[in-house]
């Protein structure tokens, strides 16, 4: 049985075009230069991802999520994944500060969508439609991913607003299913999104680990409690 293992997850094959997505307690930052392990992180990311996938499915977004298979495991549809990360940004933070003349925390008038080539050896560089074509991805496919990503943004921004949380930015990955449909895959968790408390601007995501802002599990648990309360 072939098992794919990444920095934060394992993908374990099942029958009938399904996979088990197992979330690890490992945390990495800065392309793997910073590493640590936090007991309970895998459980929190699995449960938060399941909760948000259900929310998106209820609002018409097709995802690979099928069900929960244990504390830190989800059952998902097997997809042929695109080697592209689609990033949606609502507030200036992270690397965006190096690309536009705006201070961190500036709310954007409309979301910015960015594309990155998923390749650790190259440092996940930013790409455009021309690069994507070289990777075998058509402009039509990219535009469909961007359309879905912006719809996801609309749904999640409103949902998190009700929870007193700002959706700063987030990363999505997509794949094709057996029917040739473009489907949202991977995870949606504080590992792949930036969440700020709406009043204090306190981080409730992996930036807590990246920049030593406090206890990572405390931040993830607070996010989980707000989403499920």
TrEMBL record:
Membrane-spanning ranges: none
GO molecular function: ATP binding; phosphoribosylaminoimidazolesuccinocarboxamide synthase activity
SUPFAM superfamilies according to UniProt: SAICAR synthase-like (SSF56104)
Record has Ribonucleoprotein as a keyword: no
Pathway stated in the Swiss-Prot or TrEMBL entry: Purine metabolism; IMP biosynthesis via de novo pathway; 5-amino-1-(5-phospho-D-ribosyl)imidazole-4-carboxamide from 5-amino-1-(5-phospho-D-ribosyl)imidazole-4-carboxylate: step 1/2
EC number: 6.3.2.6
EC class (word): ligase
GO BP, sorted A to Z: 'de novo' IMP biosynthetic process; cobalamin biosynthetic process
Ranges where the SAICAR synthetase/ADE2 N-terminal domain occurs: 3-226
Catalyzed chemical reaction(s): 5-amino-1-(5-phospho-D-ribosyl)imidazole-4-carboxylate + L-aspartate + ATP = (2S)-2-[5-amino-1-(5-phospho-beta-D-ribosyl)imidazole-4-carboxamido]succinate + ADP + phosphate + 2 H(+)
PROSITE patterns: SAICAR_SYNTHETASE_1, SAICAR_SYNTHETASE_2
Keywords recorded for this protein, A-Z: ATP-binding, Ligase, Nucleotide-binding, Purine biosynthesis
Record bears the keyword DNA repair: no
Protein family membership: Belongs to the SAICAR synthetase family.
PANTHER family given in the database record: MULTIFUNCTIONAL PROTEIN ADE2 (PTHR43599), SI:DKEY-6E2.2 (PTHR43599:SF3)
Protein name, per record: Phosphoribosylaminoimidazole-succinocarboxamide synthase
